[in-house]
Design a protein that fits this description.
Length: about 40
């Protein structure tokens, strides 16, 4: 979902990644997000 919203691959710079993870951490666990993107 993050990649679609941003329009760029999940492999973003550390700054963007941290921001995205922090935002998603409030909604969904980071582990689930990482697993989804890794697959």
């Amino acid at each position: 979902m993050a990649c679609k919203k941003g329009g760029t691959p999940f492999r973003a710079p550390p700054k963007t990644q941290t921001k995205k993870i922090t935002i998603f951490n409030n909604k969904k666990p980071i582990k689930t997000l990482l697993q989804k993107h890794l697959r």
